[in-house]
């Protein structure tokens, strides 16, 4: 079923102040630096006889290849830590979705390289010593400097990798998965020092030791600065508290928050924070919730769907409850939008960041189209607010109501149009518009594919996945 709120008269919104658009070369520069680190460690391996050892053959060649895998694994492990260190310029350049994909890719790649490193080094050393590989492995753990720590770190990383497999993640609550995932920092901290203490590629090489200690220090420093230091400073300055709690619909609750100097909080519509509500046991576990209204300098608003993972407690928050935040994060902002056609596609709770964008972006009457997908009419949230945007800001609001049509489709059941034809009919300007999409992973990917097929350039497609 399709329900459309027709645009009414309105005036163009004033230009929005905020951070300037992120330079496009930032992303390229970060990619070049990341690739360069792998080249550096390869060059260090070559300069210390790596290729020569391989050319000589025998157990030494196996050990040398194993060392190279270990160097690559360590480098990727530190890059993996950096992708989730919440470095502000990386967040602005790539966004959380892209960083999370790179984090996952580098994590699994690093793990299998680490496994190859352990196996090849053990076989190579066992061949040189004419020893049983299992006995050699035991000897290395107990007698080589730093190997006990490395073994403990490897076990921690194995636990993180196992719980990161999609099948395992589906069985875990978000809080449990997030807590287990923090052991990656412990694993990285324990697994790396043995290379500096016992690695033959570093013995007598000041350049190699300087490089690795610098990279390790940058990764650790970024975590301490941006995951701990910056949030502590912002929470001390802004002192957020719950002002009121409002029910928006079945299982959906909005929380209004006030604090100090909120006009100096560098948050934009479309972004999210990690939230901790100091209302009792469990406050240490954070949850990612998007702003559901454009920040106005006086208050913030988030809207939370009860998904059974601790989010249900939001509905019971009391006025005055202290709140700790990390952020803002996310690239689903209007930093590159300066007027013209605008298309927003939301599914379920994905309406929240798009609603905040409607309040901030400087579109003219008739330029903006919002398509809001829900399973039933009872799940439509913010209907009065959306009707206000239709009447006062000239937004064309369309509700797509009904059960899921099929896998790979963003439409509800009952639509005769194809995904692409339906999008062109509901949003005729999609090929020329800035397009914002937010919702569950599969739905967002289907909507993204339809928008691309309808002619929307990749550079004008902005997505946020509501999944972990």
UniProtKB/TrEMBL annotation:
Principal location class: membrane
Region described as Disordered: 1-20
Keyword terms of this UniProt record: 2Fe-2S, FAD, Flavoprotein, Iron, Iron-sulfur, Membrane, Metal-binding, Oxidoreductase, Transmembrane, Transmembrane helix
UniProt-annotated location(s): Membrane
Regions crossing the membrane: 25-45, 65-85, 105-126, 146-165, 177-197, 209-230
Domain of life per record: Bacteria
Span of domain FAD-binding FR-type: 235-335
Cofactor list: FAD
Name of the featured protein: Oxidoreductase
InterPro entries, A to Z: FAD-bd_FR_type (IPR017927), Fe3_Rdtase_TM_dom (IPR013130), FNR_nucleotide-bd (IPR039261), MRET (IPR050415), OxRdtase_FAD/NAD-bd (IPR001433), Riboflavin_synthase-like_b-brl (IPR017938)
Pfam families noted in UniProt: Ferric_reduct, NAD_binding_1
Topological relation to the membrane, as annotated: Multi-pass membrane protein
